[in-house]
Amino acid sequence: MSAPQEDARFRDARSGPLRLRAMDADDLRILSALAQDAVFPVSEMSWLRGQRRFGLLLNRVRWEDRAALGEVERVQSVLAFEDVGAVRSQGIDRADPNAVLSLLSVTMDEGEDGAGRILLTLAGGGAIALEVEALEATLRDVTRPYRAPSGKLPQHRD
């Protein structure tokens, strides 16, 4: 008679890499929550004008596994936006490629016919505005998760 086997536990499982697409405001809220507190160097922002694509290589907190793991992990992810006609920024020193930015939220002010302005709000008062013909954003993990060097969750002042 064999010993009873223990059932698998949810906390033992690790979710796979994220591959999300935002096509409407509800989708964008989910994407924004998962990208909150991601950090990235200025040098990892790219606007491909001819392809009408803007992207960031982020080091994001793995909020989706936080409760199950009990430790803080990050993963590198690409956050990309399609149909981008213009990019503007404020409060960002583009001349300092070593400057590290922290993403707080991603929102959209919708205009007519699905066009609008996507706003990436950064810690410290910086922002990136994207003029788009329609909302099409993706968030895709591109590396394996790693333990956050600080071992702590980001803190926000009230």
UniProtKB/TrEMBL annotation:
Domain of life: Bacteria
Protein name (database record): DUF2948 family protein
Species, as recorded: Oceaniovalibus guishaninsula JLT2003
